[in-house]
Amino acid sequence: MEPVAIPQAIDDPIHILLWSADEIVPFMVCMLTGMLIDHFLPALAIGLIAVKFYRRFRDNRPDGYTLHALYWLGLLPSQAMTIPNPYIRRFLP
């Protein structure tokens, strides 16, 4: 079992029970999907495995990589004026 990470600085990610806020998303998605399709326990097991793989994915990449990938795929919408449309790949003068 992995040790529980205790936040050491004010800008450390928020922890909910044993996971950080970004690690709980795959678990909750699997759990809610399992509730909808009436296969709760297998979905919980898949959710725990998904969290393990996501943690391994996240720890081998720089901070903010997941948010950048979501923006690049167009899954992180923003109405800000300074953030360009993610589907525009080339900017012409």
UniProtKB/TrEMBL annotation:
Domain of life where this protein originates: Bacteria
Pfam families to which the protein is assigned, alphabetical: TraL
Transmembrane segments: 24-51
Lineage: Bacteria, Pseudomonadati, Pseudomonadota, Gammaproteobacteria, Methylococcales
Keywords carried by this UniProt record: Membrane, Transmembrane, Transmembrane helix
Record protein name field: Conjugal transfer pilus assembly protein TraL
NCBIfam families: TraL_TIGR
